[in-house]
Amino acid sequence: MIALGQFLEVLIGGLMSGVLYSLVALGFVLIFKASGIFNFAQGAMVLLAGLALVRALDLLVANGFPFWVAVVLGIGFAAVIMAITAWLIERFVIGPLVNQDALTLFMSTIGVTFIIEGAAEMIFGSDVYPLRLFPTDSWFVLESLFPGGILLNKLDVWGGLIAGILVAGLAIFFQRTKIGRAVRLLPTTTWLHSRSGFRSAGSGSWSGLSPGLSRWSRRPCGVPSWASSSPSRFLR
Prior knowledge:
It is a single chain. By secondary structure, the chain is mainly alpha-helical. It has a domain at 36-125. Helix content is 67%, strand content 3%. The protein contains 10 helices and 2 strands, in the order ααααββαααααα. It has a two-stranded antiparallel ribbon. β1 and β2 form a beta hairpin. α1 (4-35) packs across α5. It is globular, with a radius of gyration of 21 Å. The protein starts with a helix and ends in an 8-residue tail after the last helix.
């Protein structure tokens, strides 16, 4: 029979892991709502961003930059790398396949996955690089209530807290802001655009950075203004 302490330890660990997985799910949903494409390359993009951040941190710290200054600069460098990657994917992969069926677009993202993984390892290396931003040791809590206490990994706790804050922030964004509510209407506007045979200029590259914002702010050439105007006008 499983002791109550062991049950709580597994339950808390599962909840923290679930919050992290919710961010992954949000990434798939946001990109799909912004571009109509199920982005199989999302994991490879995370790999590229992570390698860019870690290698930039190593280089900056080795050259005498204070750690937190190096963190800010490293995040900025990773953001630039991802912006360039998103533009290249839209320009040379997604753009030429506009108005193709969903399976063709999905298969193209599988090809992009292999390209990104190979390029990332070729540019930044394929070794294991630690990211020393958060403590990796563990806590033993509630030792007075349960024999041996409950084991909590500090890295899991930090990850769960940050992921929870991000999920809550996104929920508020989609429920309380005009842009967020407009993104929720994107399936309707995307259907109108596809039925009209037009595409949004530049929307693919933005889908890798801020899904939905480009569709909200750009009107496709040739589509009547009533069909392509910002959905927020109907939400006032």
